[in-house]
UniProtKB/TrEMBL annotation, chain A:
Name of this chain's protein: Acyl carrier protein
NCBIfam families given in the database record: PRK00982.1-1, PRK00982.1-2, PRK00982.1-4
Gene3D superfamilies noted in UniProt: ACP-like
Domain of life: Bacteria
Family: Belongs to the acyl carrier protein (ACP) family.
Gene name in the database record: acpP
Carrier domain ranges (all copies): 10-85
O-(pantetheine 4'-phosphoryl)serine: modified positions: 45
GO molecular function: acyl binding; acyl carrier activity
Stored InterPro entries: ACP, ACP-like_sf, PP-bd_ACP
Subcellular location: Cytoplasm
Xref: Pfam families: PP-binding
From TrEMBL, chain B:
Function: Catalyzes the condensation reaction of fatty acid synthesis by the addition to an acyl acceptor of two carbons from malonyl-ACP. Catalyzes the first condensation reaction which initiates fatty acid synthesis and may therefore play a role in governing the total rate of fatty acid production. Possesses both acetoacetyl-ACP synthase and acetyl transacylase activities. Its substrate specificity determines the biosynthesis of branched-chain and/or straight-chain of fatty acids.
Protein name: Beta-ketoacyl-[acyl-carrier-protein] synthase III
Pathway: Lipid metabolism; fatty acid biosynthesis
InterPro entries in the record: ACP_syn_III_C, ACP_syn_III_N, FabH, Thiolase-like
Lineage: Bacteria, Bacillati, Actinomycetota, Actinomycetes, Pseudonocardiales
GO BP annotations, alphabetical order: fatty acid biosynthetic process; secondary metabolite biosynthetic process
Superkingdom field: Bacteria
Length: 85, 324
């Protein structure tokens, strides 16, 4: 990417929503900050890995497996990406 | 100065015939749900398995290897005397001594054959196939019986729902022999020793794996190995008729297929899904899948098959073969 500007939280959320839709078939509109990946979006541990791998590519950030357990909600993931990008 | 001579083998090699063997006992997801906290849907969603085979006390790495090996020799139109080397890829014999290969050679009727076991875990068959092919090309061997045979139920905690739902027992075999045309391509192999801790036997008795780490590795690093095997063989992804990855988890298999299609593999490429009814049988899974697909008419003689094995070590190996 030509720009070095960090993405906004809104841009990260929109990007994550697209990834979640592709990986898990959840409509992007459903993917909002307060939703729990496991309890609300019915995403299992392996899908979380797929989401993390795609998010790493998209946002140029590292999301280790050990970190995945801490990302309970979509908002947690947005915050993590924003802080580490 | 005294000079040594070297042997010279065949210009190329191919798989002459294949065979497989499974224990009789079918174990469904409901059977497993009766002894641990799991259910049919959970298992199908996570790993794609509907049923698998568990061996009984009479089923061993050796006994299943013998059955699969004998079928492969028969399918090749050969007799045991035509084979001079036996390689048994496995990681589940209960004791390291004696090895399985010498027993298998004796019981199959390949008297006095060269024989050894090869442990590259779930990548074992592809490692053994490459080794056998190179042995025939250099003249070390004429025809090699290559077997992957595993009794994983011997090293799985029967009530650990993270592993007991995945692993199963069985064997697959191929006879490798000389050929004018190239029927076994160069191998792309390697290890990822930095991830050794992700699949281990921490108590010395039962297999343990860090599911997420192994899944990440398998879904991101194995497709490039498969592409490398194609490149080494001088083929394009669109040339592949059949993709046979190690049957580790249906989601991993589908992820590899998806990546290859993004690189040009055909939509009508047949993708092995033998895990659905056979479970994960480690080094046996690739030849067993090929044999089951052949029997079902999904794989035909002359098809270009892309094989790729991956597992503990971590280890991986892939090559292109022409189906017998």
């Amino acid at each position: 990417m030509a720009t070095t500007e960090k993405p906004t939280d809104e841009e990260i959320l929109a990007g994550l929503a697209e990834i979640v839709e592709e990986v898990a078939g959840v409509e992007a509109d459903e993917v909002t900050a307060e939703k729990s990946f496991v309890d609300d979006l019915d995403i299992d541990s392996l899908s979380m890995v797929e989401i993390a791998v795609q998010a790493e590519d998209r946002f140029e950030v590292k999301i280790p497996d050990a970190e995945l357990a801490n990302l309970k909600t979509v908002g947690d993931a947005v915050t993590y990406v924003a802080k580490n990008v | 100065m005294t000079k040594l001579r070297l042997t010279h083998g065949a210009p190329a090699t191919r798989i002459l015939g294949i065979g497989s063997a499974q224990p009789e006992r079918v174990v469904t997801n409901d059977d497993l749900a009766a002894v641990m906290d799991t259910n049919d849907q959970w298992i199908r969603d996570r790993v794609g398995i509907a049923e698998r085979r568990f061996g009984g006390s009479g089923d061993t790495v050796v006994s299943m290897a013998v059955e699969a090996g004998a079928k492969a020799i028969a399918a090749s139109g050969l007799s045991p005397a035509d084979v001079d080397t036996v390689i048994v890829a496995n990681c589940t014999t209960t004791v390291p001594i004696p090895n399985a290969a010498a027993q298998v050679a004796e019981l199959v009727g390949v008297k006095g054959a060269g024989g050894f076991d090869l442990n590259a875990a779930c990548a074992g068959f592809c490692y053994a196939l490459a080794t056998a092919s190179d042995m025939v090309r250099t003249g070390t061997a004429t025809r090699v019986l290559v077997i992957g045979s595993e009794k994983l139920t011997d090293i799985v905690d029967p009530v650990d729902r993270s592993t007991a739902i995945i692993f199963a027992d069985g064997a697959g075999a191929a006879v490798v022999g000389p050929s004018e045309e190239i029927g076994i391509g160069p191998v792309a192999w390697g290890t990822a020793g930095d991830l050794v801790e992700t699949i281990t036997m921490p108590n010395g008795k039962h297999i343990f794996q860090e599911g997420q780490s192994v899944f990440r590795w398998a879904t991101t690093k194995i497709a490039p190995i498969a592409l490398r095997a194609l490149e080494l063989a001088g083929l394009e992804p669109s040339d592949v008729d059949v993709l046979i990855p190690h049957q580790a988890n249906l989601r991993i298999v589908e992820a590899i297929a998806k990546k290859l299609r993004q690189k040009g593999a055909r939509e009508d490429m047949v993708v092995a899904d033998d895990i659905v009814t056979s479970g994960n049988t480690s080094s046996a899974s690739i030849p067993m899948a090929m044999d089951h697909m052949r029997a079902a008419g999904r794989v035909h003689s002359g098809d270009v098959a892309l094989l790729v094995g991956f597992g503990a070590g971590l280890s991986y190996a892939g090559q292109v073969v022409i189906c017998p």
